[in-house]
């Protein structure tokens, strides 16, 4: 009876009837983990989708040149518009622009936000700034600027500041309730700039691939940022991929909760085969849309509720 687009439209309608969230200013968050294979991109795609299902105007930004997040929404970063046309595929499924095309002085051809964003589930679903391999060029330029002692670390922060203040007509983001960056696991210049621009750092901690070194490295990243810039995003750690039937894993869970203290999100996500299964059909879907009644999605929803509460976007006035 309803299309996916209708579901998001209904979610926005219901949210508008309830009233605006308590927090009036926009929230900027980055999903980052220094270790691959911890479910970072899976969480980013599902969190962004659930934010929109909560009625929040959501912008998701893929900052990883591998473009796994972009693919999770059904776009092909390797497909050119000409190849799409010759294969009979909709031009909209290809990726022509990425975040780098929005950054002043770094893009050969700076375009508007509306030319870059993808809307996989219509106007009221999450909006996506996709990525492809060419995004790596932005990191190279930022590194060169850093060597020349230019202020490369604040590129994303300055772009957001002007966009949110409506000073940059090409980067009109003032209407979004939340902007969510998905950063690559390597701490490159793009990642550093995104972290400095963020209010919150959402970092998944996998109980399946638990790494004390990864947690120690994450701590050192934030400490270094505080020492250099006197600013760090608020850390929110999310327990992911844990099996309550394994004694060792439960021990790691308890230790992590005690070690990470206030940053620990009190809503964990258990290990599930659903995360490993790709959806069938012509295009991919986040798990919350592909299998909405699964236990994994129930826990994702609880995680999002706790996350929004922590970020001050938990309900109407």
Provide an overview of this structure.
- Keywords: Plasmid.
- It holds the Pfam family AAA_31.
- Residues 30-230 form the AAA domain.
- The chain is an alpha/beta fold.
- The protein folds into two domains: 63-176, no CATH class; 199-317, 3-Layer(aba) Sandwich (Rossmann fold), CATH 3.40.50.300.
- The protein has twelve helices and seven strands.
- It has helices spanning 4-18, 40-53, 68-72, 81-86, 113-116, 136-147, 155-164, 189-197, 212-229, 247-260, 287-290, 295-311; strands at 27-31, 58-62, 127-129, 178-182, 200-206, 234-242, 269-270.
- Strands 3-2-4-1-5-6-7 form a seven-stranded parallel sheet, sandwiched between helices.
- Helix 7 packs parallel to helix 8 (189-197).
- Mean pLDDT is 84; it is low at 277-283.
Summary?
By secondary structure, the protein is an alpha/beta fold. It has helices spanning 4-18, 40-53, 68-72, 81-86, 113-116, 136-147, 155-164, 189-197, 212-229, 247-260, 287-290, 295-311; strands spanning 27-31, 58-62, 127-129, 178-182, 200-206, 234-242, 269-270.
How many DSSP H or I helices? 12
Strand adjacency order, main sheet: 3-2-4-1-5-6-7
Instruction: Give me the CATH architecture of the largest domain, please.
Output: 3-Layer(aba) Sandwich
Structural class: alpha/beta
Q: How many structural units, i.e. domains?
A: 2
Protein name: Chromosome partitioning protein ParA
Domain AAA: 30-230
Pfam family, one: AAA_31
Keywords: Plasmid
